[in-house]
């Protein structure tokens, strides 16, 4: 039993503990007048915003179109990597329960044989138009001129352009240029003014600048990707005028002919090729630069074709070794392997072994630079060509011809000479053994030391040496005389002209100074 003193102590303890609890509440955050439940807010980060491409895209998109091409063929292949050819039947001839037909219907897509005119019962057989390719393009004038790739429209018989709002318009082919892979279409009977874009000034493009690619990848319709200019002046081996911009924007099949824009909405390049081991985007795409496209497009609109100046010489790069062998101070210019018979270059006096160093006073960096410079002149133009010959610089005037339509950048083939088991003399210090050629012109290489500089430079048995330091040779003694003279002149290398199945080329080999 509690006595009166015990009860008094208990009351005191309860009173003190209640006060302590209230004090704890007050210290923790003060006692509210009323209890209000608290709700969490959505995460919101206040940070600098990255610039958007949306303004550029909204401005240029109406000028970008999809290009559909039809041809008189039995089977077709579109740009979406599908092969269409159903045993001679068209897509519309397949049964309704065919898996491929169900696929296109399920996703609301037109069949691969779908035609803009949608005319039923078109006659089958030869002459029937079927889709063969699709790509991208863009308006460059308000009256309907469109730029795309030659490989998109090549062999086409009918062309349809699809605008970003879905409008389909018939177009005609104005002209093509295979060497730069460019083509121009024009909307037939335009009934409206079109939104169009213009080419950027080439000097304003820098590696690292943003580019926005707009096109029709895999036939999906208008698609936008972005990246930067990764490099300039790329040579991908597609022709003598390669001068591509490399970009890392996602470019895929169907983007061909589509434009790459800068942030001012100007076209800096036209997508034409991708590097892709798998067939998809790997971040390496190549575009025709605006400076190249503008001139070609203007000529195609004017005349439907492109006329280029022609010098008519087979050329190769000047390496450091070749420059040393010729006494040139730097490895630049274009080495003439051979002038073509009857060409403007031959008529003007350009010879095998000459190095073209400048055109109209402008230095020539390499063979591609020479090819582009000459091509930029109209046929019939007279130009001043500076060459390096026998240790001296000289100039000559050349009236350019017109580049033949079927002119190839590669050299013509020559017939190799058969190697004989015996040799006349071994040029041991160079690692090659030779014998007189059966036709009396030059020396046939019989053997090459695999550990020699000659082997490193690619010389092989069966090839023929026709000149050394631009002097014709037919015996090993003549070769040695030329080399001895080179030593007296202080040269450390000799320039060998070698003929093979792949044509003629120059190779610089070191010579013993002992």
TrEMBL record:
Name this polypeptide is given: Probable periplasmic serine endoprotease DegP-like
Active-site residues (renumbered): 151, 181, 256
Residue stretches of biased makeup (Basic and acidic residues): 114-129
Domain PDZ: start-end pairs: 312-366, 430-486
Reaction catalysed by this enzyme: Acts on substrates that are at least partially unfolded. The cleavage site P1 residue is normally between a pair of hydrophobic residues, such as Val-|-Val
GO cellular component: periplasmic space
Organism placement in taxonomy: Bacteria, Pseudomonadati, Pseudomonadota, Alphaproteobacteria, Hyphomicrobiales
Enzyme Commission (EC) number: 3.4.21.107
Enzyme kind, highest EC tier: hydrolase
Molecular function (Gene Ontology), one example: serine-type endopeptidase activity
Keyword vocabulary terms for this entry: Hydrolase, Periplasm, Protease, Repeat, Serine protease, Signal, Stress response
Organism listed in the record: Ciceribacter lividus
Keyword S-adenosyl-L-methionine: no
Pfam families: PDZ, PDZ_2, Trypsin_2
NCBIfam families: degP_htrA_DO
GO biological process: proteolysis
């Amino acid at each position: 039993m509690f006595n009166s003193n015990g009860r008094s102590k208990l009351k005191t303890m309860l009173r003190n503990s209640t006060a302590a609890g209230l004090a704890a509440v007050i210290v923790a955050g003060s006692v509210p007048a009323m209890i209000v439940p608290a709700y969490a807010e959505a995460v919101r980060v206040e940070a600098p915003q990255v610039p958007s491409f949306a303004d550029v895209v909204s401005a240029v998109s109406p000028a970008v179109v999809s290009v559909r091409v039809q041809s008189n063929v039995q089977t077709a292949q579109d740009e979406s990597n599908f092969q269409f050819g159903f045993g001679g039947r068209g897509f519309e001839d397949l049964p309704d329960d065919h898996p491929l037909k169900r696929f296109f219907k399920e996703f609301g897509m037109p069949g691969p044989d779908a035609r803009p005119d949608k005319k039923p019962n078109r006659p089958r057989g030869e002459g029937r138009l079927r889709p063969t390719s699709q790509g991208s393009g863009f308006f460059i004038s308000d009256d309907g001129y469109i730029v795309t790739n030659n490989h998109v429209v090549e062999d086409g018989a009918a062309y349809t352009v699809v605008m970003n709002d879905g409008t389909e318009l018939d177009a005609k082919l104005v002209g093509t240029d295979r060497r730069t892979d460019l083509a121009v279409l024009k909307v037939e009977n335009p009934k409206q003014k079109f939104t169009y874009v213009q080419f950027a000034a080439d000097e304003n493009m820098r590696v690292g600048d943003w580019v926005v690619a707009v096109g029709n990848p895999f036939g999906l319709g208008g698609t936008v990707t972005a990246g930067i200019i990764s490099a300039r002046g790329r040579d991908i081996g597609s022709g003598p005028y390669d001068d591509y911009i490399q970009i890392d924007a996602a470019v895929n099949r169907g983007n061909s002919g589509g434009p790459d824009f800068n942030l001012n909405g100007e076209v800096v390049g036209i997508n034409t090729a991708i590097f892709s081991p798998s067939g998809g985007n790997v971040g390496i795409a190549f575009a025709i630069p605006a400076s190249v496209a503008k001139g070609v497009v203007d000529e195609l609109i004017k005349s439907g074709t492109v006329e280029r100046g022609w010098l008519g010489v087979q050329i190769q790069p000047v390496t450091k070794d070749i420059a040393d062998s010729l006494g040139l101070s730097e490895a630049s210019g274009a080495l003439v392997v051979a002038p073509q018979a009857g060409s403007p270059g031959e008529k003007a006096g350009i010879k095998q072994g000459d190095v073209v160093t400048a055109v109209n006073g402008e230095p020539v960096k390499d063979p591609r630079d020479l090819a582009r410079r000459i091509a930029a002149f109209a046929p019939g133009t007279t130009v001043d060509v500076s060459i390096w010959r026998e240790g001296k610089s000289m100039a000559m005037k050349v009236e350019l011809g017109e580049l033949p339509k079927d002119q190839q950048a590669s050299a013509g083939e020559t017939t190799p000479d058969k190697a004989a088991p015996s040799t006349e003399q071994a040029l041991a210090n160079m690692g090659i053994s030779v014998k007189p050629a059966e036709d009396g012109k030059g020396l046939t290489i019989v053997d090459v030391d695999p550990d020699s500089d000659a082997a490193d430079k690619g010389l092989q048995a069966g090839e023929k040496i026709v000149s050394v330091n631009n002097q014709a040779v037919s015996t090993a003694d003549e070769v040695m005389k030329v080399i001895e003279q080179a030593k007296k002149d202080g040269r450390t290398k000799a320039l060998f002209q070698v003929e093979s199945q792949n044509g003629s080329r120059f190779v610089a080999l070191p010579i013993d100074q002992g």
